[in-house]
Amino acid sequence: MKKRFLLCTALLSCTIMARAQKPDTAQVLVHYKFSHIRDTTNREHPYTENMVLIVGKNAGVYKSYDKQLQDALFKKQVQEQAANSPDGHVNIQRRSSGSGTDYYQFPNGKKLARKEPLLFNSYLITDAMPAIEWKISGDTATFGGLHCQKATGHFKGRDYTAWFNPDFLLHIGPWKLNGLPGVIVEAYDTKKEVYFKFDGIEKAVISPQKSDQPTGPAPDNQGRMAVIIGMDDQVGDPNIIQLPTNAIKTTEKEFSKLQEAMRKDPNAFAQSMAAAQAASQGRPAPKIDIRIGPQPVINNPIELPEKK
């Protein structure tokens, strides 16, 4: 227990809060039906999630749309219950839905940042934008009124087909996919075990004080929420694309150590993290009891080892 506590304290001490990144304003939102066959023994039931790529002029962020909607509902319920309670008491069981991992792409600086939640904290891991050697073909197709071109490329052990719209000035895509002259609106690997299926596009709602205009073609609105609620708490305007300033900046190696400690003994890990935070604030450590249910079988991760 003491060893784990010291490990967590050391890891926390060598991390720093993410520095403020120059914010960008969302221009359009591209929606995807993401599916991933994580368990090859159960191909009939892939993991699925509604995702969104928020595209700005200079940056973009890919995140869970399901989680954003769930967060929006939770915030609304908290506000309503607090307003209607004489003593301000709130008692709402929060449902967990969707991935909390966000991917920020900064093509001009060739940087990729990933925000990962882990218990009470969010961690920020920054790396270079992965380079993908794409081959653009003459094939074309239309997705939601967007005229797209086809490209193929190899990335993280898989061969991908991507359809991109060249009318957008920002060269990004879902997840870590990038490097094509436009926005990738649909992509899938050869076996279609990983599929970012196009599910609509819409304009972001620009606040009255904003004068920025969309950089891409006028999208068709499919009746979704154009204002995304549930982004990082410190961002007041949901159309602002900015790295979370309350996330702890760390490295892939350090974060892997934290994940491993969490996996081996969730209760000891949670208690040590809480104790470290309490000590830094000069207060006693709370008693924590973490219960984690069965974990999904993942024998086919999205990133595969390269064949030698």
Automatic annotation (TrEMBL):
- What InterPro entries does UniProt report for this protein, alphabetically? GLPGLI (IPR005901)
Q: Does the keyword Signal apply?
A: yes
Q: Where is the signal peptide?
A: 1-20
* Assigned keywords, A-Z: Signal
Ranges for region Disordered: 275-308
Task: Provide the protein name.
Answer: GLPGLI family protein
Species assigned in the record: Mucilaginibacter rubeus
